[in-house]
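User: For a reading group we're discussing how well predicted structures match intuition. Take Glyoxalase. Before you show the prediction, I'll give you the sequence so everyone sees exactly what went in.
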Amino acid sequence: MAFYRDVLGFDVRLDVGGGTMRWITVGPPNQPDTAIVLHPPGVGNDVTDEEREVLQRLIAKGSYFGVNLSTDDLDATFAAIEAAGADIVQEPMEQDWGARDAAVRDPAGNMIRIQANPEETH
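Assistant: Thanks. Here is the predicted 3D structure of Glyoxalase, as structure tokens, for the group to look at:
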């Protein structure tokens, strides 16, 4: 939660439950209809220990889910996230498909890609 609140500047909207059944909803302050739900992987009675282990390996690898964000100033956003000690996956760069983006991992290992808004100039 601290990464999303303190590093990305998201609002904490809900903090529900406790232990393995706790989930937290966060979102950008200027987008009240956008929410990201944070919870432990494989929560629930219908997930086996083996499946939970597979999910944890996929998350650690960066292959399971992820969040795509956009910003008006990719370089400043990236610098602030890097200064906060985030796990850097890719520094800001131009992609072959025309987007300019960067990638980091949150403390749980989830991939976060941050794209420059199309209006950003360089």
